[in-house]
């Protein structure tokens, strides 16, 4: 934090670049520099409009405005290290440190998002969410507008302060590959695209069932906001970040399943944040690492990207409490040029933005958030940004700039605007909040937007009665863990969903049988272990040679095929994106070998196996899209849409046991014990379809959009 800040009275609006404004800005910058240089020779009384010592200035901060702004901030506490820690902090925060509790009490911040690093066991999670709420309780003795918003006084003996604004505690519990809760305790299920594969036969059944189960988990743990469901329409097979997180490729299918999820969760008093507006389904770039661009026409945007949002907003039963914005350029919706002050702008590492000058991403666009979402779609709920610490934003803007521009665009809440991972960061956040308040205090229009957001937030917290659950004594919350009946129903639901969604893309002529020798390739050793376990359980105890694509070098010669009866390849395409590269989501990353070399070796072995007439089975563990080479090289292709493996201890001897509905279904299908019932919720490329043989089974064709 700087010792001094420069106050420039200006209206904060997205920057529009043109020659005249650039010249004017240069002169303005020169004047400011000269003014600052001269100020060091002046008396303190002459510095009022140039530079003011930070601590002195913060004494005059509008505390009421600061409290309103704080409610608009949703921070993360993913990691936390002591001041003596060396290097980048990667120590998970599992208990609430005193410094963070103090910072929460002083700042009156509105929300906290938790990640898998924060969540280790049911008891630990309940203690953490309870402590987070308690930290806020002494802080709200005189909160503007609180009484009018229906937050009633409660006087349990546990708490000294009866009046407070409860904290939003959020999580990304989408199901499937984005499941933050520990899966050894809480089922993550197969995910949205697997649910999409069941819709032709079961309509909304599995969307409702999985959403209900996950909502009950969150209620049990003291979590009141779920950043889900994803209602993006995935119409890009190579999408690195959405893909199987979407229900599918067909807008009406996405609308129906997403709407069912929203209704179910909110009936359980879990607020959802449907995402990512106006759509993240057709991107080649992950917004964690760059600024994606969608060059759809307005007509295409209306009929595909916006359609699910329009439909769920238009139905009062499925209208989400929150909508999350996307850090994505949509030139057809807003072509305003986007240039940040940071030097990194000139050398932005962004493959999609280099061909054309970047335009304002949706998160920072008033045309998109206010004109389209608020006015055209008539959305009256809370607009929350995607995480502002993503490179799509940070390469252009400082944290304060990002917050101010998103507020100006119409966002009610900013997610992860300031990193806090140490005691120094906690102190720095308070100074940063003061600085942010000073900037906003100078703009009456922006203050009006803050007031409107603040009213919406308090009204919503009262509507969902978040305070009631938060005020329960810790002992009462922990007592709820005694009922574990949900585990059996979750287990059965996970197996049922996997069976209903497992999809045959290309037929298997002869089921595999006991005593056959298998050569198997899987994304990592844990997937190998899961396949071997279910094969031994359901078929026999014969040896299976399974190699990890991540960690075991695969030779391209044919020696591996000696005495082999079948080759099985588990594919987790597209390649690991940012999400896996940070969290790994169960994919082990240590000792990874070059993926391209590994795939070349596998392709060579599969080609040799085809020449030797050895059966070859491809299972798409993630994305179901196949290439022409896949269609021509493999004798059978299946899609599970899911690669999750949970490590549990449920055997009589308390030995480690792996639970994976996807691998249970895989083994049953390839041995003829289970019929693949799912229907592709996406369309394969024309070339891939032509390369496939004519279907010989009774499987239904992929659904087509009406």
Protein model, in words:
The protein has 706 residues and is an alpha/beta fold. It folds into 3 domains: 4-53, no CATH class; 61-145 and 152-482, TIM Barrel; 502-691, Glycoside hydrolase family 3 C-terminal domain (Rossmann fold), CATH 3.40.50.1700. The protein is built from 24 helices and 20 strands. Strand 3 (73-76), helix 4 and strand 4 form a beta-alpha-beta unit. It is globular, with a radius of gyration of 27 Å.
Radius of gyration from the CA trace?
27 Å
| Beta-strand percent range | 5-15%
- By DSSP (H or I, 4+ residues per run), the number of helices equals 24
CATH topology of the largest domain: TIM Barrel
Number of strands: 20
For CATH, the homologous superfamily of the largest domain is named as Glycoside hydrolase, family 3, N-terminal domain
EC number: 3.2.1.52
Pfam family, one: Glyco_hydro_3
Family: Belongs to the glycosyl hydrolase 3 family.
GO molecular function: beta-N-acetylhexosaminidase activity
Write the layout of secondary structure elements.
Blueprint: E1 4-6, H1 19-39, E2 51-53, H2 54-58, H3 63-71, E3 73-76, H4 98-107, E4 111-114, H5 122-136, E5 168-171, E6 173-175, E7 178-179, H6 192-202, H7 205-221, E8 225-226, H8 251-267, E9 271-277, H9 298-305, H10 307-314, E10 322-325, H11 366-376, E11 382-387, H12 391-394, H13 399-409, E12 413-415, H14 423-441, H15 444-463, H16 466-470, H17 474-479, H18 486-501, E13 503-506, E14 518-522, H19 525-538, E15 544-548, E16 566-571, H20 578-583, H21 595-611, E17 616-620, H22 628-633, E18 636-639, E19 646-648, E20 657-659, H23 661-670, H24 686-691
Parallel strand pairs: 3-4, 3-12, 4-5, 5-8, 8-9, 9-10, 10-11, 11-12, 14-15, 14-16, 16-17, 17-18
Antiparallel strand pairs: 1-2, 6-7, 13-18, 19-20
Helix pairs in contact: 3-14, 3-15, 4-5, 4-14, 6-18, 7-8, 7-18, 8-10, 18-23, 19-23
């Amino acid at each position: 934090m700087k010792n001094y800040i420069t106050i420039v009275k200006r209206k904060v609006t997205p920057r529009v670049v043109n020659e005249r404004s650039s010249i004017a800005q240069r002169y303005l910058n020169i004047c400011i520099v000269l003014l600052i240089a001269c100020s060091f020779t002046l008396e303190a009384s002459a510095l009022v409009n140039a530079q003011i010592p930070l601590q002195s200035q913060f004494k005059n901060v509008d505390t009421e405005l600061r409290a309103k702004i704080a409610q608009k901030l949703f921070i993360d506490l993913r990691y936390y290290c002591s001041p003596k820690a060396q290097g980048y902090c990667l120590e998970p925060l599992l208990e609430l440190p005193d410094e963070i509790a103090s910072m929460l009490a002083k700042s009156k911040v509105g929300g906290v998002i938790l990640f898998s690093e924060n969540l280790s066991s049911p008891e630990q999670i309940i203690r953490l969410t309870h402590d987070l709420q308690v930290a806020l309780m002494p802080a709200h003795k005189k909160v503007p507008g609180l009484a009018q918003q229906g937050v009633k006084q409660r006087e349990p003996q546990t708490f000294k302060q009866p009046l407070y604004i409860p904290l939003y505690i959020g999580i990304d519990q989408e199901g499937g590959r984005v499941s933050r809760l520990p899966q050894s305790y809480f089922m993550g299920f197969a995910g949205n695209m697997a649910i999409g594969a069941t819709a032709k036969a079961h309509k909304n059944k599995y969307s409702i069932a999985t959403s209900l189960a996950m909502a009950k988990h969150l209620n049990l743990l003291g979590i009141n906001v779920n950043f889900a469901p994803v209602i993006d329409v995935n119409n890009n097979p190579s999408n690195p970040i959405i893909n199987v997180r979407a229900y599918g490729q067909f807008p009406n299918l996405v609308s129906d399943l997403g709407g069912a999820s929203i209704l179910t969760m909110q009936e359980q008093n879990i607020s959802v944040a449907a995402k990512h507006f106006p759509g993240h389904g057709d991107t080649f770039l992950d917004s964690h690492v760059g600024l994606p661009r969608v060059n759809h026409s307005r007509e295409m945007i209306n009929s595909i990207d916006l359609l699910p949002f329009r439909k769920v907003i238009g139905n009062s039963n499925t209208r989400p409490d929150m909508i999350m914005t996307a850090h994505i350029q949509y030139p057809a919706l807003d072509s305003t040029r986007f240039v940040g002050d940071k030097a990194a702008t000139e050398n932005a590492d962004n493959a999609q933005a280099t061909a054309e000058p970047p335009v304002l991403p949706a998160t920072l666009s008033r045309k998109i958030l206010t004109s389209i979402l608020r006015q055209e779609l008539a959305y009256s709920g809370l607009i929350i940004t995607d995480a502002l610490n993503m490179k799509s934003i940070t390469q252009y803007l400082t944290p304060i700039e990002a917050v101010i521009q998103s507020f100006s665009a119409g966002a009610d809440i900013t997610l992860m605007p300031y990193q806090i991972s140490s005691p120094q960061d906690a102190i720095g956040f308070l100074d940063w909040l003061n600085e942010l308040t000073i900037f906003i205090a100078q703009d009456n229009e922006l203050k009006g937007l803050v007031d409107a957001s603040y009213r919406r937030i308090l009204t919503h917290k009262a509507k969902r009665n978040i305070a009631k659950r938060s005020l329960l004594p810790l002992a009462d919350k922990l007592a709820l863990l005694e009922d574990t009946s949900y585990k059996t129903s979750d287990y059965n639901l996970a197996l049922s969903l996997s069976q209903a969604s497992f999809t045959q893309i290309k037929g298997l002529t002869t089921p595999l049988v006991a005593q056959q020798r298998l050569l198997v390739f899987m994304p990592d050793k844990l997937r190998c272990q899961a396949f071997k376990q279910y094969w031994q359980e359901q078929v026999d105890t014969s040896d299976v040679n399974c190699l990890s694509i991540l960690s075991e070098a695969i030779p391209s010669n044919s020696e591996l095929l000696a005495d082999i009866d079948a080759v099985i390849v588990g594919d987790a395409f597209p390649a690991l994106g940012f999400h896996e590269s940070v969290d790994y989501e169960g994919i082990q990353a240590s000792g990874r070998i070059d993926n391209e070399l590994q795939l070349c070796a596998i392709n060579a072995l599969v080609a040799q196996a085809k020449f030797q007439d050895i059966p070859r089975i491809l299972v798409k563990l993630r994305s179901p899209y196949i290439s022409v080479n896949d269609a021509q090289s493999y004798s059978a292709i299946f899609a599970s849409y899911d690669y999750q493996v949970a490590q549990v201890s449920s055997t009589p001897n308390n030995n480690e046991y792996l639970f994976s509905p996807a691998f249970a279904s895989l083994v049953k299908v390839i041995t003829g014990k289970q019929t693949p019932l799912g229907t592709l919720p996406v369309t394969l490329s024309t070339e891939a379809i032509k390369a496939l043989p004519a279907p010989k089974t009774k499987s239904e064709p992929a659904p087509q959009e009406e």
